[in-house]
Specification:
2 strands, 6 helices, 2 domains, single chain, Arc Repressor Mutant, subunit A
Length: 111
């Protein structure tokens, strides 16, 4: 038996244009994808910023370093606790949460 929310969604689907349906699929995919795998936000740790699990290294810091010209190899050398997988997770998180990370970069530049 379908939930009432699912029934409502099914009814609305017929009213959507192909472009709207494509947008809906994109939203659903992003919601279902694990774009924050390996990333955690903990209140009181690094101001609640998204960080690499097992570390206190914020995603915004890695993005800022990359924008300044640091390669993945440079970052792995500079932060010995990082693994290549952590950088993949950080870049994926940034792609999905670009506005959040850009705002944190600006916040930290102002400090």
């Amino acid at each position: 038996m379908q939930s009432s929310a699912l029934q409502k969604a099914e009814a609305l689907l017929s009213e959507l244009s192909p472009a709207d349906k494509a947008q809906l699929i994109k939203w659903a995919f992003n919601d279902l994808s694990d774009a924050s795998a390996g990333i955690e936000k903990t209140p009181g740790v690094c101001g609640g910023s998204a960080c690499i699990v097992r570390t206190r290294i914020p995603v915004w810091l890695l993005v800022e370093a990359q924008k300044a010209g640091a390669s993945d190899a440079d970052l792995l050398r500079s932060y010995p606790t990082l693994r290549a997988e952590d950088l993949v997770n950080a870049w994926a998180y940034y792609r999905v949460n670009k506005l959040e990370i850009e705002a944190e970069i600006l916040e930290n530049e102002a400090v």
